[in-house]
Amino acid sequence: MPDFALLAVFIPTFFFVSITPGMCMTLAMTLGMSIGVRRTLWMMLGELVGVALVATAAVMGVASIMLNYPEVFQVFKWVGGIYLGYIGVQMWRARGKITLPSDTDTNPRASNLTLITQGFITAIANPKGWAFMVSLLPPFINAERDVAPQLLALLSIIMVTEFVSMLAYASGGKSLRIFLSRGDNIRWLNRIAGSLMIGVGIWLAVS
């Protein structure tokens, strides 16, 4: 298990980043309104598998660098910290608009396999998702402990957070869409998540 102090930083950071409207969340909301929450669960299954694959690859790849090339990992920490800070600044500057998938992406007659594939591809084809996982997850892995239990704990948190967030978007439907479209609600979500990202980036660079 990771240190509780690290989890106290990781959980709120990932929660606010996850709950902020993005490709997967807006897809869940749109599918929830067009085909229902129950069928949207198939898309969520594919998305969770994709996120787990991305997170596992990110942690294992960087953990290998951490153990075999500690000097390179120090440089990587600085680059990762700067990148997280950059993401945080971009989230602060974001205008906060919702980009909804096209009608062809929300075909109510789509098969369960199609929905699973759609969620999986959405998760693994997002370069920002890969960069985010590579930058954020490794700092929460302690090289002096077994990697597997720590990875399992972080993956469990990620899976639960992602599922709860997508379920909230799928269930919220039109009411949630109106809420997110009103005023600066999305902008404030972006700013909270962006502030946490900047903080984690600074902590990563100086730790």
From TrEMBL:
It is found in: Cell membrane. One of its GO terms (cellular component) is plasma membrane. Its main location: membrane. It is a multi-pass membrane protein. The chain crosses the membrane at residues 6-29, 41-66, 72-89, 147-168, 188-206. Keywords: Cell membrane, Membrane, Transmembrane, Transmembrane helix. This is Homoserine/homoserine lactone efflux protein.
